[in-house]
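Sharing in case it's useful to others searching the archive later.

Someone asked me privately for the predicted structure of Conjugal transfer protein TraD, so I'm posting the question and my answer publicly. Question first, with the sequence:
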Amino acid sequence: MTTDARKKDTREKIELGGLIVKAGLRYEKRALLLGLLIEAGKRIKGNEAERSRLTVIGAEAFGNGSE
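And my answer, the predicted structure tokens:
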């Protein structure tokens, strides 16, 4: 992996961690967080209505509809 690729990967991981903080889940156990993400992944797979519903919630949390 090149230096630029490592930097990009690190930045992406930091941003994803920031989502956990923004969601108010900073102090939850890692196992719980992973379980939440796995469950959410299952719920949205092939379910456009659920994907859209959760996207609206996330966009409102960001304060816009662009994310």
